[in-house]
Amino acid sequence: MKVPSISLEERKTTFKEVKLGFTEEEALAEANRCLQCEEPLCVKGCPANVNIPDFIKSFRDGDIKKAAQIIRLKNFFPSICGRICQQEKQCEGNCILAKSKGGAVNIGGIERFVGDNSTFPKAQKLNGINAAIVGSGPSGLTAAAYLALAGINVTVFESTHALGGVIKYGVPEFRLPKEVVAQDLTGLLELGVDFEPNAKISDESIKKLAEEYGVVFVGTGVGAARKITVPGHDLKGIIPAMKFLVNLNQSGMPMINQGDKVVVVGAGYVGIDTARSAVRLGGEVTCITVAKKEDAIKSVSKRDYAGAEEEGVKFKFGLTVNKFEPGEEKEKVGKVHYTNGESGVMEVNKVIVAIGQVHDEDELKQPLRDEDNGCVKVNDSHQTRIDNVFAAGDCVHGPKTVIEAIDQGRGAAEAMLDYLEKKK
User: Fold this and answer.
1) Domain residue spans in the chain?
2) C-alpha 153: how far from chain center
3) Shortest CA distance to 79 belongs to which of 4, 223, 177?
4) pLDDT digits (tens, 9 = 90+) for 338-357
5) Is the pTM of this model over 0.70?
6) What is the pLDDT of residues 370-401, one digit of tens each?
7) Of the N and C termini of the chain, which has fewer Cβ atoms inside 10 Å?
8) CA-CA distances (angstroms) from residue 35 to 47, 65, 318, 353?
9) What is the Cα–Cα distance from 7 to 15, expressed in whole angstroms?
10) Calculated CA dihedral for residues 88, 89, 92, 98, nearest 10 degrees
11) Do 129 and 153 contact (CB within 8 A), yes or no?
């Protein structure tokens, strides 16, 4: 069963959440389709290895509290992941019913219902140990949650005023409403987690943090946009995708005018989010990528491409951008030149570049970096060169999915608790 959605015509003009979510009756009907496999392939398909059959069984048995507890053993944020996880490629893609007439069990829809209708667990009594979390993205918030549950006094330092990182301001409102993230942040506050926004943490050395706190976690992600280094790449009107999304989500600054001809370079998840956002702002949007169609769809999902095309996004595959050219305004982009065996050109008002993120020059991470690839270097226990400093998420392995960052944050929290126990 598909999760109900708002109408297509409304989708094109509003940033309201597209998927409305299951009612309790619908969620239970979908949960009753689960076969409770002895060797559940859905669990193997989940990057966090959530015990999916067990949480579904508890839910359909009427114990939503237990269902939420089972999910949160591995994934503390079911409301978020139920909305934005790549279920088609992960848990649902591995469901034994995926190739049946009825299709896979809608695990994401059930997870979202459980998350939206359950309360957070209670933390243990404080044990006198302090932990610093640097970065409030998915890995940092996850580490904060599991440490707080264990009775540790946790402070999350965020360099900007916006708590939540990419899950709050890098994902469009129509996929993940900010109020959903705000509810989870409130849940962390109830666990006793302190937040320090606008923290100028780069002014302090990582060694000083390590001296002041029992354990330190670094989860600062990757902050710089990958650039297209072709002639004309520095013209006005060429915008990094994450800058576009963050400006739109934080301040409502659209950066797109009604009727603008917009080219989005890159057709991964960020590219599709960007293209669908530009459509809602009134742009005529074409999304181009060097990938062939079959490869591009494999890397994202048929569901996301179909949704974007329904809303009016055009896709061109197998194209390589080789030059940007100004239009009537000499400093502003007006044309995109490309090749796909033959040369071609598109007239544009705006270009949004969505070809990935790379490591920035964050001073805090400098003592922890690998000299070859810019990543923070850790061992198998998420431990850095400094004994009580741990790291996980995109700053360690480069850009990956939200659920992978959550899984890494949980693993790091477990490693920190083990470190503290051995130190005692």
Assistant:
1) 8-116, 130-223+359-423, 225-357
2) 26
3) 177
4) 998 788 999 999 999 999 88
5) yes
6) 656 678 889 999 999 899 999 999 888 888 88
7) C
8) 21, 21, 41, 43
9) 12
10) 80
11) yes
Question: What separation in angstroms does the CA of 344 have from each of 219, 298, 319, 341?
Answer: 42, 26, 9, 9
Nearest 10 degrees: CA dihedral of 80, 83, 85, 86?
-170
pLDDT digits (tens, 9 = 90+) for 44-57: 999 999 999 999 99
What class does CATH assign to 225-357?
alpha beta
Judge if 8-116 and 130-223+359-423 fold alike in CATH terms: no
Selected from 3.40.50.720, 3.50.50.60, 3.40.50.2300, 2.40.128.270, the CATH number assigned to the domain covering 130-223+359-423 reads 3.50.50.60
Task: State the Cα–Cα distance between residues 32 and 274, nearest whole angstrom.
Answer: 36
Q: Please give the Cα distance from 219 to 225 (Å, whole number).
A: 18
CB of 267 closer than 8 Å to CB of 291: yes
Angstrom CA distances, 188 to 42, 162, 195, 304, stand at 28, 15, 9, 31
Identity (one letter) of the amino acid at 382? H
